[in-house]
C-alpha cells in the first residue's frame, strides 16, 4: 500500500502541487470576499474629507491643448519669486526658457542674476566654490542635500517640481487645487473625528492626501507678485499660472506631441477612406 502511494505521488507530483496551490488560492479569495461582505468599512477623516482636484481650466489641457506663453512667463515669475525659495526644478536648463518667449539676452540675465549659484571648485586651491550660472546650466538645487532641506523646513524635504505634474494624478489640477485649498478645519470634521485635529506645525488642506501638510500657504494674498504684463495677481490667478509653468517643465514638448497626434489621426482617416475605396473597386463585381 505504501509502495502504491509513493508511486502515485511520484508520477503525479505536479498535479498534487497544482491542486494544493489552487485550493490555497480559492481559500484566499473566499476569505477576502467574505471579509468584504461582513466587515464594516473603516472610515477616516482622510477618506471622507479629502477632495479630488478642481479643474484649473488651463489652455494646455485636452487632446489639442497648447501653451499660453504669456501665462507661462507669469508662472515662471511666481516660481522665481515664491516657490524657488524651497523647491528646485533641477531638470530644467536656463536656456529652456527661450521656449517661453524670452530672448537670448533675457535668459542670460536670468541665469546670471539667479540667487543660487552653481557649485564649483576653486582651480587654485581645490576648495569648494560657486560660480555664476550660465544659460547652458540647469537650475541649481535650493539645498545641498536632504539634511540641509530638513533643517530649514521643519524636518520636511520640499520635493523637486520639475516633474510634479507628471508625478501626481491630474497633476496640473492637483497643483492648482493644492495652492488654493488651504483653510481652517471644518467643524464637521472635528466633531466626527476629534483626534484628527491638525498637529502643530502642519497646515490643513483638503486636496492633500492626508489633509495636513508641512508646507505653509505659499500664496498669501493679491498682488504678492507684480506681473509685468499688468495681469491682476490674485491667489487664484497665481495658482493657475504656476500650474501652467510646472505643466511645461514636466512636458515641454506637449504641443509637438499634440500636433503629431493630430497629424497621425488625419493620416489614418485618409488611409482608411482610400483603403475602403480600393476594396469597393476591386470587389465591385462580387456579392457580399
Structure in words:
- The chain is mainly α and 288 residues long.
- It has helices at 2-11, 13-38, 45-49, 69-81, 104-113, 146-152, 164-167, 171-179, 187-192, 235-250, 254-282, and strands at residues 118-121, 128-131, 203-204, 212-213.
- A hairpin with a 7-residue loop joins strand 3 and strand 4 (212-213).
- It is extended and about 80 Å long.
- It starts with a helix and ends in a 6-residue tail after the last helix.
- The mean pLDDT is 89.
Keywords for this entry:
mainly alpha, two-stranded antiparallel sheet, 288 residues, 4% strand
* Number of separate strands: 4
Spatial order of the strands forming the largest sheet: 1-2
Unreliable runs: none
Q: Please estimate the helix content.
A: 40-55%
Annotation field: number of helices: 11
The termini sit apart by 68 Å
Round the mean pLDDT to the nearest integer and report it.
89
Tertiary shape = extended
Which class do the helix and strand fractions yield? mainly alpha
Rg (CA only): 29 Å
Percentage beta strand: under 5%
Largest sheet: 2 strands, antiparallel
Give the SSE string.
HHHHHEEHHHHEEHH
SSE arrangement:
Layout: H1 2-11, H2 13-38, H3 45-49, H4 69-81, H5 104-113, E1 118-121, E2 128-131, H6 146-152, H7 164-167, H8 171-179, H9 187-192, E3 203-204, E4 212-213, H10 235-250, H11 254-282
